[in-house]
Design a protein that fits this description.
The chain is built from 2 helices and 2 strands. It is mainly α and about 70 residues long.
């Protein structure tokens, strides 16, 4: 039962990150400021969101609540 709770938390976090990716928080309309190391804000934030998705995918693979059959 504990794994199912962690699984649902991972799914919810992924949904929030995916929705957040396409909002003006990540992609400001007509704006490329501020810059960090000569790269725009949206590029850096997208990089960190991608790392978060990779981490959640790894965590989700560890807490998957369903039994998988061996073939």
């Amino acid at each position: 039962m504990k794994n199912k709770r962690y699984w649902m938390m991972c799914v919810a976090a992924v949904i929030v990150i995916v929705v957040l990716t396409f909002t003006p928080v990540v992609i400001p309309a007509g704006q490329s400021d501020p810059f960090f190391l000569n790269m725009p804000y949206s590029l850096w934030l997208s990089f960190f969101l991608t790392l978060a998705l990779v981490g959640l995918t790894f965590l989700g693979s560890r807490v998957l609540p369903y039994e998988q059959e061996d073939e």
